[in-house]
Fold:
Amino acid sequence: MKHITIAAIALFLFTANTFSQTPNKIIDSGTVEGQFENLIDKSNNFQGYKVIKKTSLLKLQSNVLDSLKVSKNKVLANVDFLNSQKRVIDNL
Structure:
């Protein structure tokens, strides 16, 4: 009986750990648009509303903020490059 109880607890912990990691795997890669689509597809319905796990939403928020930061840095780098090119042209 003791072995069955230990096996049941181990199985429960393994299953809970597997399910708790699944939402973040859904939105760890791909485009931001694809991550939104996956999040919506994997969410549950409740009285006409979509129910999304908070951890998944926070992960998506982090991914979006990272993407925006990268895009902003690219824009700033391009602005710097264009300004340097303009200075070169003005000196000609």
About this structure: The chain has three helices and two strands. The two ends are 89 Å apart (CA to CA). The first helix runs from residue 2 to 26.
